[in-house]
Hints:
- By secondary structure, the chain is an alpha/beta fold.
- A hairpin with a 4-residue loop joins strand 2 and strand 3.
- The longest helix has 12 residues.
- The termini are far apart.
Amino acid sequence: MCGAELHALPETVQRVARALQDASHPHAPVMLDDAARTAQQAADALGVALGQIAKSIVFRRKEDDAAVLVVTSGDLRVDEKKVQAFVCTDGSKLGRADAEFVKGRTGFSIGGVSPLAHLTPPVTLIDEQLFRFTEIWAAAGHPHAVFRLTPQALQLLTAAPVCDVTVPAA
């Protein structure tokens, strides 16, 4: 993107696009015709496997009211107890993050939470299962916006640790 295209995007997508540009990421956000609020909707719109969608799940750490972002494959469920073991100290707990909390901390609405360019940087974990894929897609700050990357690029862009935080497949 050279700049003119950037101004036509929603403000939240512009924020993600700037972060990607600043990091010299080769792929700009793209706007989909239909909303991709769920991983399945995004996979269908992009014609990729459900697991290639890097879904962002936000929790609320009760000890300090911090946002905890878990980025995982769209075909898996997050194991809250595993996340809690990584990010909580002194036996504290994780709680659910409602839409107001997510928007207030990240600057993004649920269904469009990007793994980067947050208003307040969250505690972030990347699930190791994303590394099953050579190419993944993540939300770009809006339910219609996504961007392409590799799991390795996700780790570089977020500086987040890679962990096992999903429920084992049945």
